Amino acid sequence: MRNRTLAPSVLVALLALVLALVAFASSAEPPPAGAPPTETPSGPVPGAPASTLSPDLIHAVLVAEVALQRGDYDAAFEYFLRAAELARAPSLAERAVRSALNAKRSAAARRALALWTALEPDAPKAHQLAAFLALDAGDQEQAMASLQRVIELAGVPGQGYLQAAQILGRLPVPADRFRVMRALIDALDAEDDPDAQFALATLAAAANDDETAIRLAERAAALRPGWSDPALFLVRLLVRREQVEQAHAMLDRYIGAAPADFELKLMKAQLHMDAEESEPALAIFDELLAREPERSDVLMAAAVLALEITDLDKARGYLEALQRLKQRPNDVAFLLGQVEEQAGNRDAALAFYEQVRGQNRTSAQVRIASLYAKDGDIARARKLLQQLRHRSPSQSVTFSLIEAELLRAQGLDQPALEVYNSALDEHPDDADLLYARAMLAVGMDDVALLERDLRRILVDDPDHVDALNALGYTLADRTDRLDAAQALIERALQLRPDDPAILDSMGWVLFRKGQPEQAEAYLRRALAQGFDAEIAAHLGEVLWTLGRKDEARAIWGHALEEAPEHDYLLRVLSRFRFSHTDH
Hints:
The protein is mainly α. The chain has a domain at about 1-120. Helix content is about 75%, strand content about 0%. α22 runs antiparallel to α23 (about 415-425), α23 (about 415-425) packs antiparallel against α24 (about 430-445) and α25 (about 445-460) packs antiparallel against α26. It is globular.
């Protein structure tokens, strides 16, 4: 049987904990007169002076700590409570409360809370937990009393109402949260308190009562002119309601009234980013950084945005500023690696990626492998990915997918297939591996393998939309099994009716079945959702078949301008002897 005796080092640590807790308890003030008594199995009565380091106290704390380590929360509660009563230590009473909560013993938790609040009447955490327990028990009177104390004891003025609103999140019905907060504000006569009105606005919004939320937030803003929190809340609420133009107009009004407000300007930049308006967003970031050049959050947001739009010089500048500030070094090194990689500075990119530690470490190593592969050093790239797979077996599927994709990108389809085969030997039902191998198979003209893998996915998940669409499209494009193809695509379209890829598949199967007029409608719907060279190629072919050759030429000409090297598009145009000079 395994030896269950505690190691000496653990005993030393536990004894140190006892000494620290008792030292803290000995400096605590005695509870106020009239504090409610608590049940005590034995030992000193509540309200007595703090105990010395007695054998009973040491034993209680040691047993409680060992029980906690073993997950025996019932025993931990009993012994922490006994230790708290012996030592008169609020910290031990808190541990008793939390142990009881872990044991799902609400009555026991309330018993320990009574001792905690007797020993430390102004402990905010104690009253927060008391409010939680009262709400769970449906005791609104006690919840209201505890929430009032939470508000009174808030460390930061005004934060108590927001803390109370967060605690009320315990109630399952949003309308009940609003009702209790409304009653609490009435009881505290806080109708003219901006913090109270703002907290109530957040609960109204959570209850989807946007009109009330807007009215309350506007009142909070009027009660405290220049306060940006309600303004930001109102803008976010309008965005949630998809009233983006109104959100911009409201934000502009607030900025006009407070042009120096940093947070309002940040929100304006966020709205531009949400609308993919990168240049105005960067202009605001630059304006803010001119005022506060050491704001690391703004520097990081600006760097990520500049990298997204491939403004590499700007991105590099923001990241080098973060380097000088010694902020977020691993994130900065990873992003600088991406900057230099996109700039074609391979050695600099590798150097930055090698510096990355922490959560981005694996991603950086994958980028290193990708750079090796682009240089033609496939063996080195694969060795690195195999090392990562060995180090993190739980992510072995991901690394296999990455390795195969690197090989495909270099035109090495057969080695990529071998990677998929090996991975599927270990994970035969993995949908991602099956789907990836199917996509490789169609490029290798192995329709049988594609169909086998996709149908294997559909056995476990009949509504796997991508598998339905891919199989349906391939059958329509590569075989004469058009009815089967259409049935698969129709099912995919039911599940995802506005997906442009599925609309394209439906158009294509209808065209292959000799129904070009119906095909055109689907293809136009697909193309209307965003340019795609393959959809444009299909639509042009349909229009050509319908005798509308000028329209086909116009579609193909635009597609060539947008994607001059798109392989599928070029193959279609070659069949119709269409070139750049034909439009």
